[in-house]
Amino acid sequence: MCVALNCRAQVTVSKRTETVSIVSTLGFAEGSWRFKIIDESVAWLDQPPEGVRSLLDAACKKTRLTSCCPAALTIDTLAFYSPRDKKKLGLGSSSATTVALVAALQKQSFDIENIWANSKMVHKAFQNGRGSGIDIATSCFGGLITYTSCDTAPPTKTTWPTGLYYQFFYSGIEADTIAAIDRAAGVSEKSWNMLIEHARDAAIAWGSGNVEEILDAMEQYTVSLRKLDLLYGLNIFGAGHQDLVDLAKTTSLIYKPCGSGGGDIGVALSKTKKDIQDFSQYARMKGFMPLDLEIDNNGVIPTIGEKV
Questions:
Q1: Quick one: what percent of the chain has pLDDT higher than 90?
Q2: Global confidence as pTM
Q3: How many CA atoms lie within 13 A of 108 on its CB side?
Q4: pLDDT (tens digit per residue) in 270-281
Q5: Distance in angstroms (rounded) separating the CA atoms of residues 55 and 53
Q6: Contact (Cβ atoms closer than 8 angstroms) between residue 28 and residue 55
Q7: Confidence of residue 302 (pLDDT cuts 50, 70, 90)
Q8: Which pLDDT band, with edges at 50, 70 and 90, does 149 fall under?
């Protein structure tokens, strides 16, 4: 299960009269870099950061970047970084950026399933084949989704249950997702099966809309995830996440780290707003920052002009 939040990457693509293309970024990198497309490959005239280089290289191979050039691209991911210290929050900025870029490059045919398929290919190339693709699907379709990585059909959208309250928290520590995925490569198939079983149970509970069942299933999944974490030294519950898990056990709340864990964000779920408010005060004392974010049921959105 994954949910989209109202934090957006924005991409603008426009034609240039010059013979050289340019990409400008805000957020994960700051600056502008010139390039040309030669033999359907990016030929850089400047030296962009590796993230910018890899994203554009992947987009050139898998999308219509060639047909748009010479172009001026602007990629804005400022919303994914803490205004306090400019660290990444861990909300899936690379996936949101990939989806927005792919959608902008093929705006003349805004087919969401085609955007999803191309975004998966670009992101896989961008991350050297790593990742499940769940964050790409969430960025494309929005809302609360049920996702299976082996599915070729679009994910199933689910309504957020009435009476289930949530709060996302930022740990203040950046997690290295790629390093976390590499660590997880050593997990045995038997151990994965245990976690998959609890993930399926949780997905069934979310589909039921029953808050009690959801909280019970999420607690079981979190316990299973913690066992996996300890067994293989994955550090999912590091950076203070385990402290909040322990506190949640003394209340009616469920708390778990999100994404790769080891920093970035976590989420608290409860039947009451009061418990969420009380928990937020404790989380602040532990150095966690409650994020002013809400569920966004819209996926990728084309806007007036060239921005996506």
A1: 80
A2: 0.94
A3: 6
A4: 999 999 999 999
A5: 6
A6: no
A7: confident
A8: confident
CA distance 282 to 244: 8
Q: Are 31 and 53 in contact (CB under 8 A)?
A: no
Q: Tell me the residue type at 38.
A: I
Mean pLDDT to the nearest integer, 98-116: 89
In the chain, the number of structural domains is 2
CA distance 160 to 209: 8
pLDDT at 308 > cutoff 80? no
Asked if 118 and 34 sit in the same domain, the reply is yes
The backbone torsions φ and ψ at residue 46, rounded to the nearest 5 degrees and listed phi first, read -125, 180
Residue 13 confidence (pLDDT): 92
Domain hosting residue 267, numbered range: 173-287
SS3 for the chain is CEECECCCCEEEEEECCCCCEEEEEECCCCEEEEEEEECCEEEECCCCCHHHHHHHHHHHHHCCHHHHCCEEEEEECHHHECCCCCCECCCCHHHHHHHHHHHHHCHHHCCHHHHHHHHHHHHHHHCCCCCCCHHHHHHHHCCEEECCCCCCCCCEEECCCCCCEEEEEECCCCCCHHHHHHHHCCCCHHHHHHHHHHHHHHHHHHHHCCHHHHHHHHHHHHHHHHHHHHHHCCCCCCCCHHHHHHHHHCCCCEEEECCCCCCCEEEEEECCHHHHHHHHHHHHHCCCEECCCCECCCCCCCCCCCEC
Lookup: tokens for 89: 């929050």
Residue 168 lies in a domain: no
CA-CA-CA-CA torsion for 226, 250, 258, 183, nearest 10 degrees?
Answer: -20
The CATH number for 81's domain is 3.30.230.10
The pair of three-digit structure tokens given for residue 184, joined into one six-digit string: 């997880």
Q: Would you place residue 305 in the very low, low, confident or very high pLDDT band (cuts 50, 70, 90)?
A: low
118 inside domain? yes
Would you state the pLDDT for residue 66?
A: 86
